[in-house]
Specification:
This protein is of the alpha/beta class and about 280 residues long. Helix content is about 50%, strand content about 15%.
């Protein structure tokens, strides 16, 4: 979940460049869902709750405390239109809990009998507040790790928000001054076209730009310096995630310290620029 918006398995498969049906099939097999279905264990852990005077069933296809470990991950998946919370073991890739709710109070209830909660040392999650609160309540000894996908997506969303803001401002100006909309840059774009057509190039690394995109980016950055600043700050963040070459056990701690210091510098730059939200400061190595 990003900003309380559900990310479907279809979106995940698109990012991975594979068929959503194939990913869903793999997911069900690797998670143990198919085995549980064959053994008739699906539905036995479901609970009935009362929401605004109406009884609702929370489906719990998987509830296996034995699959808990020291490194866990929590996320949501939309399957056949139903949103599930998935708690999985990062080391074994096995699911400990799968429930058709995102509400913390019900997830805490489902986890109340999990004695193995105390062994969890790290919890990988997105930036959703409900998962943050769940982690603090259920896994009090665990530190939280915001996964790369959601950090980068939030950063890119913030970059696009700046572009959209400028476009809205130009739209407002064009309504007042129609002649302003006829002015064109050297690449024949008007201001509104420039801001609309720059969406795609802001997602890409500048080394991957076409010649046309390079020309458009040069005009965009000279006209709107804030977009340029945001773009290259986020580029630094994306580069930070790249694994260092020849990282042996001997150099691991030194590399870790260097990366930790470098990340803090990037966060400080992002904060001072006002480009990104304060949520990034919750990132943990």
């Amino acid at each position: 979940m990003v900003d309380n918006k559900v990310i479907s398995i279809g979106n995940v498969s698109y990012v991975l460049g594979m068929s959503s049906k194939k990913l869903y099939r793999w997911y069900k097999e690797l998670s143990g869902y198919n085995k549980a279905d064959r053994e008739g264990l699906i539905g036995t852990k479901d609970i009935i709750v009362k929401e605004k005077g109406v009884l609702e069933r929370i489906r719990v296809p998987i509830s296996k405390p034995e699959n808990m470990g020291s490194k866990m991950a929590i996320d949501e998946k939309t399957i056949n239109g139903i949103c599930y919370t998935i708690l999985s073991n990062r080391q074994t890739n096995k699911i400990a809990l799968m429930a058709s709710t995102l509400k913390t109070k019900y997830l805490l209830k489902l986890l109340s009998d999990f004695q193995e909660k105390s062994q969890v040392k790290s919890l990988t999650r997105d930036m959703a507040q409900n998962f943050e609160w769940l982690g603090k309540q259920a896994f009090i000894k665990a530190y939280h790790v915001i996964d790369k996908f959601h950090v980068i997506k939030n950063a890119l969303d913030s970059l696009q928000a700046i572009r959209i803001r400028y476009r809205q401002e130009e739209l407002a100006k064009s309504r007042l001054n129609k002649d302003n909309n006829n002015l064109k840059y050297s690449n024949s774009d008007t201001k509104l076209q420039l801001l609309a057509r720059s969406r795609g190039l802001l997602f890409k690394n500048n080394k991957e730009w076409t010649i046309q995109q390079e020309q458009r980016a040069a005009i965009l950055f000279s006209t709107y310096p804030e977009i340029k600043q945001a773009y290259f700050l986020i580029k630094k963040l994306r580069k930070w995630y790249q694994k260092p070459k020849n990282n042996t056990k001997k150099t691991y701690q030194k590399t870790r310290n260097v990366k930790s210091n470098r990340l803090q510098l990037i966060i400080d730059e992002l904060k001072s620029s006002g480009v990104y939200e304060k949520k990034l400061s919750t990132f943990t190595l």
